[in-house]
Design brief:
The protein is mainly β. It has a single domain, classed as Maltoporin, Chain A (Beta Barrel).
Length: about 675
């Protein structure tokens, strides 16, 4: 893998040339007007106001207790990962993101975009949170509900848009270096500057540490290991104008993430190389054209929880994702904003693993599995402004392909043990969404929306069995696409300028919901449930009085499984890993001199580990803190605290075998920028 480091070094060298290449292009030197580039996509369409949306600004992104994106997103009402662990102590393949208590498996039901590019893993569908440095972001937008616009086939529960900060926001040189009370380190840096009339940014981050014991003290054995982690990421981004109205945005990134879970030798690793090109036109005919490619790999070693030896080596899972979109906004009428376009996504990959005897250590089986999924989508949307009323509607048609699927197992001598060759299949599906926003008064907005959505099963769900010893989970090549139907109604009230209250009531139903269904005590299979129903309320409160601010959110969801036939026993049960109540509150003080003090109180109610509701994960309440004190114009001292009261956070309960989340952790370091 040395080529990755060579590419990273080349990118770093290029970054130092960025300011030099800009010399002679200062504003006014040529006598011409300056071309302004933003590095952003097209302006958000008016329809965004008809849906439940949460915005997170840069100050909140870079001032969390843990310094991790998933921790920032936990403050969004309804956001949920499959497990409560963050990206230091979770198995990477379990880091799916969803909204509105539509969890139940490890694949993302929310579409996560970085500067308009989907970033979910092509094989597994998890989100590589460690591949994105929070310090490089300028804004996060979370839109709940099924998507009918670009890449809408992945937005079953909603869309999470990560937007990069520009060079002006980052400054020429910025970075931070912190250490915690376990002697773990977190280092990040970014260099940015003008690139002709545009700009370029090179950034990187490196996190490493011995980790903490996820196993409770009473369950530890000599083979028990800390959740060690070592991850790095390097990104290069360039934005340049092609004409007065058209700009080119290019991005490339490399990342690697290694973790150890529970036992010595239980090591996992993800690797990735991503690249994208984007053309954004802001003339009379606005357009957004994007193309991207992803190369990913995953490896994982499973250790027996009884004999503490290697029983499975998922040594290689190469996968590739590629896709793109073209969106056009024709200038039809001032009262209408029309968007039409096409998008395409393709995922292909293959698992290669070896199973070993827990008693002799000898090779038992060699297994391989994989396939190809693709989706071609056509979409059109229109926003119509009629005085104080905004009406919006969108229609989307998707042609989905699931092909070349297989699973093959051979014994140590190369003799075929079992083989599945899945039939190719394809289908057309139509999705839609519609909404209305009424400006009732200058202080009150009322909105309503209804929508449908679509998600293809991932290659992982279709073809890859896995073991969390001693529980075996089988794949299922016959899985059908998930379909969402839902509606919501909400209001935003601003009684005074300093206070904004938002409330949304929703009813969502995911038909053919994919879940790990228990067949026997140590055997599960991925199956389509008839449906998961989720009804609930989300609320947000934002207040700002002088240098003090308060941001609070809560979500209450009544989610149940609709079971029939083979899943009748699950009827009325709550989906696994799904809390009914979650709340977050952040109080911050930020005087004008660059200081910031904040504390976050977060509560997550109890939830069930499994679909049988036999194992519970107790409720957890945590308090985090952040402090930044300016010592010079360029340097600040940073102090962060995670889980300050050392709450026991149970993240897994498999037959009484417990995993825990992060204990109390204190960070201290420096942040610099000029």
């Amino acid at each position: 893998m040395n080529y990755r480091y060579q590419l990273a070094a080349s990118a770093l060298a290029l970054s130092f040339s960025v300011p030099l290449s800009a010399q002679g292009a200062e504003e006014g030197e040529t006598g011409e007007s300056e071309i302004v580039v933003t590095g952003e996509g097209l302006q958000q369409a008016p329809s965004i106001g008809a849906y439940s949306v949460t915005e997170i600004d840069r100050e909140a992104i870079v001032s969390s207790g843990s310094g991790r994106i998933e921790d920032v997103l936990e403050n969004v009402a309804g956001f949920q990962q499959f497990r409560r662990s963050d990206s230091r102590s979770a198995n990477p393949s379990a880091q799916g993101a969803t909204l509105r208590a539509l969890g139940g498996n490890a694949t993302s039901r929310a579409l996560v975009l970085l500067d308009g590019v989907p970033i979910s893993d092509p094989f597994f569908g998890y989100i590589p949170f460690n591949a994105v440095a929070p310090e490089t972001l300028g804004n996060i937008r979370v839109t709940r509900g099924g998507g009918a616009g670009p890449f809408g086939a992945g937005a079953l529960a909603g869309t999470i848009e990560l937007e990069s900060a520009d060079a002006r926001t980052l400054g020429p040189v910025s970075g931070s270096l912190l250490v915690n009370d376990r002697e773990e380190t977190e280092a990040s840096a970014a260099l940015s500057g003008k690139l002709g009339a545009g700009f370029g940014v090179i950034s990187g981050r490196w996190d490493r540490g011995q980790g903490f014991f996820t196993t409770p003290e009473g369950q530890r054995v000599p083979a028990t290991a800390r959740a060690a982690f070592d991850s790095w990421q390097v990104g290069l981004r360039a934005v340049a104008p092609l004409t007065d109205d058209v700009e080119l945005q290019a991005r490339g990134s490399l990342f690697e993430d290694a973790r150890t879970l529970r036992f010595e030798g239980a090591d996992s690793r993800i690797e990735g190389q991503d690249a994208s090109l984007r053309f954004v036109g802001r003339g009379s005919w606005e357009f957004d054209a994007l193309a991207y490619v992803q190369a990913r790999n995953f490896s994982n070693v499973i250790i027996s929880s009884t004999r503490f030896v290697r029983v499975l080596d998922q040594r290689n899972t190469p996968s590739t994702g590629l896709g793109g979109k073209i969106e056009v906004r024709p200038p039809i009428d001032e009262a209408h904003t029309v968007r039409l376009g096409v998008d395409y996504r393709k995922s292909e990959g293959e698992l290669q693993e070896e199973a070993f005897s827990a008693f002799t250590g000898n090779l038992r089986e060699r297994r391989s599995a994989g396939g190809t999924n693709s989706n071609l989508g056509l979409f059109i949307e229109d926003d119509w402004q009629i005085g104080p009323l905004l009406l919006t509607g969108g229609l989307r048609a998707d042609h989905t392909n699931i092909q070349d699927g297989f699973f093959r197992a051979e014994d140590a001598g190369g003799i075929l043990v079992s083989e599945t060759v899945a039939p190719d299949r394809s289908d057309w599906a139509v999705s839609w969404r519609t909404g209305a926003l009424f400006y009732a008064t200058r202080k009150l907005d009322i909105r309503a929306a209804a929508y449908t959505g679509l998600r293809l099963p991932t290659l992982n769900e279709l073809y890859r069995p896995f073991v969390v010893f001693p529980v075996v989970t089988q794949a299922n090549s016959a899985l059908e696409n998930e379909r969402l139907k839902g509606f919501e109604i909400g209001a935003t009230w601003q009684p005074i300028d300093a206070v904004v209250v938002s409330v949304t009531a929703f009813d969502n139903r995911v038909e053919n919901a994919i879940a790990n269904v228990t067949l026997q005590s140590n055997l599960r299979q991925r199956q389509n449930l008839p449906a998961i129903d989720a009804q609930g309320v989300e609320a947000n409160l934002a207040m700002k009085f002088g240098s003090f601010s308060f941001d609070g959110s809560l979500a209450y969801t009544d989610a149940t499984i609709d079971g029939e036939g083979a899943s009748l026993a699950l009827d009325g049960n709550r989906p696994p890993q799904t809390p009914d109540f979650a709340a977050s509150a952040t109080l911050a003080w930020q005087p004008a001199n660059g200081w910031r003090l904040s504390t976050t109180l977060r509560h997550v109610s109890g939830q069930f580990e499994d679909d049988q509701e036999t194992a519970t994960l107790p409720a957890a309440t945590t308090i985090d803190a952040f402090a930044q004190a300016t010592i010079t114009d360029e340097f600040s001292v940073i102090v962060r605290g995670e889980n300050l009261f050392d709450e026991e956070i149970v993240t897994r309960n498999s037959g009484g075998a417990i995993d825990l989340g992060a204990p109390r952790t204190i960070w201290i370091g420096l942040r610099f920028g000029y």
